[in-house]
Structure formats: C-alpha cells, structure tokens
C-alpha cells in the first residue's frame, strides 16, 4: 500500500474528529475492519507467495477499499461542500468512462461538451443550492430535449436515434442518478437533525456496497448455479440471495443512525440492495455489449469508477425519494 497502516490510522482519526459522533464511530469501525483485513491479506501473501492470483486480487481489493474509504472520509470531513465536490468529480469520471466506451463519432463532440460543461455543473449547482424543483427536472426534461437538438445540428443522420439515446442515457446515469447521493445532505426531515444527514449517505453507501461484497463472499463460499451468466458470469443465485439478505440485516442494525425504525431500515435496505443488484446487471449488459470486462482501470483491483458506483446509480434515486416522500419535513 502507498500509506502505512499507522499513517492511515492517523489520517482516519484526525478526519473522524470533524464528523458527528455516530459517523466517527462508523469510520473507526470500518478502519478497524480494514486493518484486520490488511493483516490477513499480508499474512496470506507471505504464506502462499506473491504470485498467487487469488491472494493478489484480495490485496488489490483491500487497497482499493482503503483508498475509497479515505476519499469518502476526506469529503465528509468538509461537510456538504466536500460531499458535493466529491460526487461532482465521481460523475465527471463516470461520464468520461461511459463516453470512452460508447462513442466513436466526431459528430457527437458537441453533445459531449454539453454533458461535461453544461449539464454536469448546472445539475450539481442545483444540488448545492438545495433547489429541488430544478434538481429533479433539469436533466430528465431540459437535458432530454437539448441533447438531441445539439446532435441534430451536426447534420449527421446516421444512427441518429441511437446516438441521441446514448447521450441521454449517459446524462441520466452518470449525472442525474449519482447527484441524488449528495442531495441527501440537504433534506430537512421531521425529528432528525439535518446536521446528521451524512449518516443517510453512510447508510445508503454502506448497505449497497456491503451487499456487493457479501454477494461475492456468499457466492465463493456456497457456489452453485449462476443467476445471469450472460451478464455477470461471477454472480450465483446463492451469492445474490445471501448477499442481499445479509445486507438487509446489516441495514436493520444501522437503524439507530437514521430516522427509520429497525423494520423500516430493513425494508429500505432490501429495496436499495435489490436496486443495486439490478443496476449492476444493467451496467454489465452495456459492458458485455461492447466486449469489455471493466469500464476502466482507475481503481486498482476494482476496475473503473463506474464499476464501483453502478449499484449506487440505481439505488440512490430510489432511496432519496423514499426518504424525501415519507420523512421530509
């Protein structure tokens, strides 16, 4: 790893001091788990040799989780501004990966410019401003209309509908859906201190990411038939069911940091984990269509940015609107 375990501990503890007590405890707990995982990973590496592919993959994943946890912690340290900036950058990276994979025509250049330099910053401005009315319709309405208009101005009619649909899909997934994560910071909920809204992000990201990890773990432990081999060759029926149900139980345990009861947290956790699973399948279908395994190689051991947030892209809007509809003041 690029940082020693001691250095990582100092960074985590200093940053955690700027968070709410509940968030600090959660990050300290995550840090403890990562320390334990790092020790086990290094022990297995020494025992089995550095050339063991499975152990190398495990250590790469642990390194990636260290990196992602520290990035999240750094953003949460700066509160609302840090969270908006972080997910702005995540959306930018996701847009770049999506564009690199699906676009081949120079005639689509100006559509890409509109996505990067108009839709992306304006959408996140509405998030930061807390302007729900424009945040919720800007891309589904105005973005949906302006992108094919820009595409038509190129005068290129070949595959026009397909090209316009790709642009609209990219804007919806990479900008609109992901922007719902920092938008949680600006909700005003009955009986819940909005200075603790960061805990909603931790609940959402924690439930979805734990579900992904546990689906992998249960699949390796039990094995069995593949659930959708043409889309995701590594996912099994046992792994999917075990991972989602286990993550649902963990979501119920996280109820005290949310405005939800234990039963409500379990139901919401199940819904977002299920949406995350379907999101992974949909994004895998796009990759398989283009003959690639990963969206990119930004995160060692985890592929590209979209490989990490594909589940969150589908889970975040559903979680946001459930929370806003039933709990918003």
Describe this structure in words.
This protein has a domain at 188-328. It contains twelve helices and no strands. The protein has helices spanning 5-16, 21-48, 53-77, 79-102, 109-129, 132-152, 160-177, 180-183, 198-222, 237-253, 262-289, 305-327. Helix 1 runs antiparallel to helix 2. The longest helix is centred in the N-terminal third of the chain and has 28 residues, at 21-48. The chain is globular and about 60 Å long. This is Phosphatidate cytidylyltransferase.
Question: Can you give me a brief rundown of this structure?
Answer:
The chain is an all-alpha fold and 329 residues long. The chain contains 12 helices and no strands.
Chain-wise SSE layout:
Blueprint: H1 5-16, H2 21-48, H3 53-77, H4 79-102, H5 109-129, H6 132-152, H7 160-177, H8 180-183, H9 198-222, H10 237-253, H11 262-289, H12 305-327
């Amino acid at each position: 790893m690029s940082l020693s375990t001691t250095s990582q501990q100092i960074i985590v503890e200093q940053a955690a001091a700027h968070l709410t007590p509940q968030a600090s405890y959660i990050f300290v707990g995550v840090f403890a788990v990562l320390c334990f995982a790092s020790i086990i990973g290094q022990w297995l590496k020494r025992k089995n040799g550095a050339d063991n592919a499975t152990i190398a993959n495990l250590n790469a994943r642990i390194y990636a989780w260290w990196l992602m946890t520290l990035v999240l912690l750094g953003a949460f340290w700066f509160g609302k501004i840090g969270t908006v900036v972080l997910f702005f950058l995540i959306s930018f990276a996701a847009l770049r990966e999506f564009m690199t994979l699906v676009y081949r025509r120079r005639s689509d250049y100006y559509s890409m410019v509109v996505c990067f330099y108009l839709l992306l910053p304006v959408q996140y401005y509405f998030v930061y401003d807390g302007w729900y009315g424009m945040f919720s319709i800007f891309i589904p309405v105005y973005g949906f209309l302006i992108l094919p208009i820009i595409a038509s101005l190129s005068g290129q009619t070949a595959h026009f509908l397909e090209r316009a649909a790709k642009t609209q899909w990219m804007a919806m997934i990479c900008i609109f859906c992901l922007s719902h994560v920092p938008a949680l910071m600006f909700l005003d909920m009955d009986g819940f201190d909005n200075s603790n809204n960061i805990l909603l992000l931790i609940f959402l990201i924690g439930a979805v990411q734990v579900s992904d990890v546990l689906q992998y773990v249960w699949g390796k432990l039990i094995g069995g038939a593949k659930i959708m081999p043409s889309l995701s060759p590594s996912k099994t029926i046992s792994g999917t069911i075990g991972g989602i149900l286990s993550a649902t139980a963990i979501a119920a345990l996280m109820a005290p940091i949310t405005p939800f009861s234990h039963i409500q947290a379990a139901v919401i956790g199940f819904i977002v984990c299920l949406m995350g699973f379907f999101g992974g399948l949909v994004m895998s279908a796009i990759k398989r269509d283009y003959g690639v395994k990963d969206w990119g190689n930004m995160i060692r051991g985890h592929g590209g940015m979209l490989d990490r947030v594909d589940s969150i892209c589908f889970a975040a809007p559903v979680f946001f609107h459930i929370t806003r509809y039933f709990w918003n003041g």
